[in-house]
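[Meeting: bench + compute handoff]

Bench side (C.D.) handed over the final construct sequence. Compute side (W.E.) agreed to return the predicted structure before the next meeting so the bench team could plan truncations. Sequence as handed over:
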Amino acid sequence: MKLAVEGLQHPASARYSPLTCSVAIAFLAALHCVTRIFSRTLILNAARIIEYRIRDDLFRQLLLLDQNYFSSSRTGDILSRFSNDLSNVRMLTGFGAMSAINTVIIYTAAVTLMLRFHPWLTIWAILPFPLMVLVVKKISHRLFQRSLEAQEELARLSSLSEESVSAVRLIKSYCREEFFQKQFEQTAGDYLNHNLRLARLRGLIIPVMAVATGAGTLVVLFMGGRLVIAGDITLGDFVAFSGYLSMLVWPTAVMGWILTLAQRGAASMSRLATVLTAEAAVSDASGSKDIEGIHTGIEFRGLSFCYGATQILDRISLHVAVGEKIGITGAVGSGKSTLINLLPRLLPVADNMLFIDGQDINGITLASLRRLVGYVPQEAFLFSRSIRENITYGLPDYDGRMVTDAARQAGFTEDVEKFREGYDTVVGEKGVSLSGGQKQRLAIARALATNPPVLLLDDPLSSVDAGREEGILAELGRYYANRTVLIVSQRISAFRDCDRVIVLERGVIAEEGTPEELLQRGGLYAEMDRMQRLQKELG
């Protein structure tokens, strides 16, 4: 630019003609354009790859975490980390990193060239910038805190939205639309207020940048003009110097944006780190070995379990032989579901309390242990896929007969035949198109399809009517064969094929024996049977 101005001023003595300078400027502009395209493609692609890898690590980590983590975490909060927090990290590693690199390069090049023209003028021109850095540094800590608060509010809003959508039928049935609308407005308002506070703080940064660059421009105009008049520098030097200073305007403004991205990215990364660094209470211990099958049985040796400070199970001792059918019953909160959840290690169990074939369960790899177990939870969860895909969820390879056999054994065949698309019928999100009993029967079919040697049934017939229950129990009785079965239920009728029944009361075994023996004793089991018979007669 200096040579072009001098060429226009003194064409005869100029080293390069204006045309040559114009061509050179055009070539440099084109080179700058190509460089920017290449750098943006390279860095932004790298940011996308980083985002992909973090998301992949997050999902892998979530699959490794146990029930305790998810019991204390909100679904909407986790989803917010997958979406908004990851986007902030991508922006930081993409646009933020690219802008930071550009800023460093431009500042280094521009200041170096400005120093060649006039060192003192350069010092005066960039003097406001250190003051700007000090002001921005004071703002940055508050910016991080408010960014983190805004992210937490977004997580609350996402959690409330997810919960409301999932429970929309319940909300409508209780006419609670207005209540949830007000709750959503309040949460959304809190999120808005936090973002407005953040925006006001971010708004301080740009004016600070503008003041710094404006002050530098005024210094150059005043002092540079005097130097040109005094003949210390040429007009071309002045124009070139002003051009280099103007190159610092945009990078300086971008520094505020980079700072904002850095603080938001740091806040988001801290939230992601809480998931990535979370440790599962249930994991494979060093030296764990695979187990191929069960040969002698399962043994509980003085097993105790607590949820926090609450004692759930207290010194449970029980031996389950291979092929034995054990019924587990008791009042609500007596520890029935907890007991069978410990067997596939869905909950952490202490050492030397639970054994399979004489081997401590903590010394068995989780994958090999859970391959032996068919588990039907108390609340049947179904994927938003077809009936066939839900039944074969645990099967890498299967044929049509395996699907139909599992459905028949679970008493689900008649229901499938009523659907127009049969086994290809999509059940909807969480099985929304099925009744409660149909969901349970489909969950039972899914567990039976894997043909496990150990079957855990956690109150599997609670939503099944009495007429259908008889047929399902008959099919299950034939399926049990030599399999080891633990069935939890409050219906006495569910234990008709059981070899033994244990009755839990406040976490301890209050009664144990065959169904006939327990009825003759006249204890808790007999009282439960009497009350259910009475309810059936009155109902």
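W.E. noted at the follow-up: The radius of gyration is 36 Å. C.D. will use this when planning the next construct.
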